[in-house]
């Protein structure tokens, strides 16, 4: 980070810390409690939000880009991807040629758990090593990768999800960092190529912008970059030192935790070197969010605490940030349920006026928004800048999935390994019954408070209205998906949906949510 930018960042973060101390100091003043159970719930949500905010600011202060190193010739490299039942052939027809066409000399492997003859023939045509293990499905993706590593014996191995098609120079941009013998893995950002396919896909993409921009660049500066399974390159000796790719639903996170605990260093390269597919429908998105939340909570409760002594302080903080991220869902759910409850009952958790609450919270909100906008200069692409409203809608929509993942992890429920669908799946109103209920109750609570003329309720009414809008927008998306699947209006315009490298997949009706999410006009509208 240039010296002038770092100075401005320090100034903004120092203002943010003062605003944070101002709010929390007011919150913790004796006599603030009006209703103890409600105050405890609000306090938990407030302190969780404060911690996440502070952690993001610390990462921003340490933003760093690694200095590029060209790879030396002669290294042996294996490029690996997997196939699971149900993944469309068109996906591999796009990704496999891209893997073969990587410029740095390498061997390419397809590890097929689906046993499809057409994939074997495609591999023969492209000169790809085809491997099918005798017991498909055992250990999920990690089990499949570990079986393939018995045959792939290169010094380095790049593992790709089958929907992530790399640019030809991918290996040239990541291998050089392994000149440092301490480097065990190199990670590039996960970027989606189908952001305009639906509003769900756009929201899923928006949720990743800051993670793969300033946050990951900051974690790299703290020598604690995370690892994501979409496309990661490993030193084979590093994988061997932990017994291979870690078997788990969050195999990438568990592998990163074990590698750093063994003393291996990670490098984050903030360059768009491969593009994958985001979920395009609510059913797939919620299923993915549940699986991610459950697996991350499971690792946090069962692996994190025994590995803490083997990490640096910054690594422990980084993995704590990851392990607690999905508490955002329960925190949002508390807000969704308590706001209308307070309007219906007239109860309050804090013994102070709305004006006082707003006066103490306002500076913190303003500072955080200012810091976020400043940090967007470190996003990967200029078009990622903005307020990301669709990402916010999808975050609120995920509250139930995240909470379900937490409860399942606490109960020790085993969730089978499920591959995220790469094509649109049947979806609709059945996915949003709870969202519709919350939106309806929120509107009713606002109307009730207005009719009964509750005193000092304006801020709470505004918060409840925000919740109703978030939930109502989710219901609207589901209504549009319902219309799509029922083909209620066959006169709607159609467009050709394409996969990687322009591979046609299907012609389908263009719904209202799709029209909103498609094209540069939408980008400008969302900015406004």
Task: Explain what this protein looks like in three dimensions.
This protein has helices spanning 3-27, 36-61, 89-100, 117-126, 140-148, 170-174, 199-206, 209-221, 236-241, 251-261, 282-307, 313-324, 328-345, 354-375, 389-397, 399-410, 433-451, 458-486, 512-517, 519-527; strands spanning 77-83, 107-112, 129-131, 156-160, 165-166, 183-187, 191-192, 231-235, 265-268, 274-276, 494-498, 504-509. It is built from 20 helices and twelve strands. Strands 3-2-1-4-8-6-9 form a seven-stranded mixed β-sheet, sandwiched between helices. Strands 5-10-7 form a three-stranded mixed β-sheet. α1 (3-27) packs antiparallel against α14, α13 (328-345) crosses α16 (399-410) and α13 (328-345) runs parallel beside α17 (433-451). Helix content is 54%, strand content 10%. It has 528 residues and is an alpha/beta fold.
Shape label: globular
Could you tell me the radius of gyration in angstroms? 24 Å
DSSP strand content = 5-15%
**Main beta-sheet strand count, sense and barrel state:** 7 strands, mixed
DSSP helical segment count: 20
The share of residues in helices is 40-55%
* Annotation, overall tally of beta strands: 12
Order of strands in the sheet with most strands: 3-2-1-4-8-6-9
Structural class: alpha/beta
What is the mean pLDDT?
Answer: 89
Low-confidence stretches: 488-528
